[in-house]
Amino acid sequence: MNAEEFLDTINKKENHTAVEDMQNVMNIISNVKQQGDAALKSYTKDFDRVDIENFKVPEKILDDSLNSLSGEERQALAHITGRIKEYQESIKYSDIDNDEFKYVYRPLEKVGIYIPGGTALYPSSVLMTVVPALIAGVKEIHVVTPTFNTNNMTFGALRILGVDNVYTVGGAQAVAALAYGTETIPKVDKIVGPGNKFVALAKKLVFGDVGIDMIAGPSEILLYVDDTADPAHIAYDIFAQAEHDVNARTFLLSESTDTIDRVDKEIERLIESLDRKEIVKESLQNNHYKIADTRERLIKIINEISPEHVSIQHQDSAEIISDIHYAGAVFEGTYSPEAAGDYAAGPSHVLPTDGTGRFSHGLNVNDFLTSHAVINLKKETFDEIAEDAKLLAAKEGLSAHYESLNIRTE
Amino acid sequence: MNAEEFLDTINKKENHTAVEDMQNVMNIISNVKQQGDAALKSYTKDFDRVDIENFKVPEKILDDSLNSLSGEERQALAHITGRIKEYQESIKYSDIDNDEFKYVYRPLEKVGIYIPGGTALYPSSVLMTVVPALIAGVKEIHVVTPTFNTNNMTFGALRILGVDNVYTVGGAQAVAALAYGTETIPKVDKIVGPGNKFVALAKKLVFGDVGIDMIAGPSEILLYVDDTADPAHIAYDIFAQAEHDVNARTFLLSESTDTIDRVDKEIERLIESLDRKEIVKESLQNNHYKIADTRERLIKIINEISPEHVSIQHQDSAEIISDIHYAGAVFEGTYSPEAAGDYAAGPSHVLPTDGTGRFSHGLNVNDFLTSHAVINLKKETFDEIAEDAKLLAAKEGLSAHYESLNIRTE
Questions:
Q1: Which listed residue, of A41, A131, B72, B191, carries a Cα 20 to 30 Å from B407's Cα?
Q2: What is the pLDDT of residues A347-382, one digit of tens each?
Q3: Which fold has domain A19-212?
Q4: Which residues contact A56 (CB under 8 A, 6 or more apart)?
Q5: What mean pLDDT is reported for chain A?
Q6: Contact A372 B330 (CB under 8 A)
Q7: Eight-state DSSP code of residue B316
Q8: ipTM value of the model?
Q9: CATH 3.30.2160.10 corresponds to the domain B218-359
């Protein structure tokens, strides 16, 4: 399809949150608020089919998990941790001191991090969320994860990073516990990290009572390619997104239909060899878009839908990227496949989806800081602004504001 | 009271959003989504008692409003605008370029700004929200305000700043219109600005579909003083907060009960002379707290409740401020009364309230930017990380991720 047809199609596919889901999540939050740990136990039994006596993972289990890692695994985690640290330090904000105005950044005190679990392990999500918090200087990190095996790489990674407060609880109930506190889990200031749609809904509902990073939907990639890209590379980049989830979205853009056809042939040739081919097939069936049009119109698409991942494998990549305003993250060239970003490049893989990159950004060290201005006016400056400020105060009918200024000019 | 008694008292006063209010706001949003302008007209008639044919303010009205301003008023607006610009430019983020990683900031495309109205005018809120958006480089600014008089300073200030898109609609319905669009008002990317509790609830409910700045509650100030502060100054600073609203909160902290008593006497002496004395009296009756304790415990209070405004008028102000981690904004010394910050100092007066400064910050130029990383790895770097990334991909059971990396190492 061309750019216009694509924008028509995508604008018609509106995401509607089922009212029933919203109501269920509201009930879960309300029950956790009122009954604390007892509600957590009951939901964990119902949803995860696990009987939990104590949600807090004992130190011994964290140690055992660490000890069960191979030397190669430990080294990989340490190496990637180092890369993430270096990147996050390079973008961390510093205090500003402009004489009468300071602007200061302070680490958050208590942060809750959601790490997905269930049947799979996501040690990469541990690194991509905990390391930025550590670089920010967060004092207390509390991790919730529906991970019920005793020896596992998620716990091992947490132990390596020095996180002691780990709780085996997931879903909306875990978000509610972090937002309002229970007997076991303390109330935190901000909750971050990826999760399923119930986690996302719960984050939306507790927002304002605590900070949250973003409300994430299914993952997505947009690939913008020409013939300098190897079609087999592109096929695997598409598969890597599609294997996450049948709802994952993949967009293949090119100025040439021939290029798209060549990728199509590789998809066809390689798809049967995939471990998760059923998920990939269903995902491609429902949520794969191929768009050929002029460069100008293709860039317009990128800025309009602001995809979570944008991969530009094109000889004019620098030029194209300079026109991209909105994206979760941009990956340039053959050697920056999105999978490298997922695991090891440096920036966090927790990124805004479904157009929300138009107003929000991927998780980073600065999301674990809060900031404020310190205003210290000299008498001369105060005298210079007092009359104007008094004029506005009078106009707004706030006479005590007026007097609070006026008494200092006497 | 002392610090401990205060923290007990304040922790017991929990804010509960009435379920009924939430339900009403959900209905308003849903009706605006479905019926657009027709719903706006109906709500404006019901809530504001105004019949509106066309929500968009004609250019002539904006011009007339500007022309109705006195020379002094124009000059005051221009002067303050200049100060806000200078401050916001000094804290604006710049792109980072670290070879394989760029981090880039882009202005938001479409922003909605809520300016309170009703019976009063708030030209100061126009400056404190629109100027940061302009410095960021926002392309389209759409202002909603329940301001129905034709010639007024709010419109005049908007005209001076070059804002053409002004709509006379307020409340939750205005937020819904900006979030989802109507025939007259376009959907925006982010909604900012102060408003009443229905505006705050609507912002919470549309969050995620659009960005929002914060969910603000009643205004509050914490004053930390010693005998170097003039008790009459402090009394007026307290009045200036209390005159906003019977729910406005004022906290007076000192290491000495004598100091607090001296301020009390001034409050008593001056309160009857205030224009808005009924509001001030009710506010002080219900929401004024006097706390005397050690410096350590007083600073603990500040960090725990993170007040919107913190005013330190104390001979050791620098030392005290260095221990303050969480606040909306900090005002230091005699010549930085909070009222100066409201109107003219430079930083925006749109600030987090009710403890939310522990995880969020006052509105500034950077809230009108979004950002993303651009990752461009060299082949050597890719080769250096590929094995570790493949190991994690395999561990997480994502074989297409593994292949997307592996095919590039061949």
A1: A131
A2: 889 999 999 999 999 999 999 999 999 999 999 999
A3: Rossmann fold (3.40.50)
A4: A165, A166, A167, A184
A5: 94
A6: yes
A7: T
A8: 0.95
A9: no
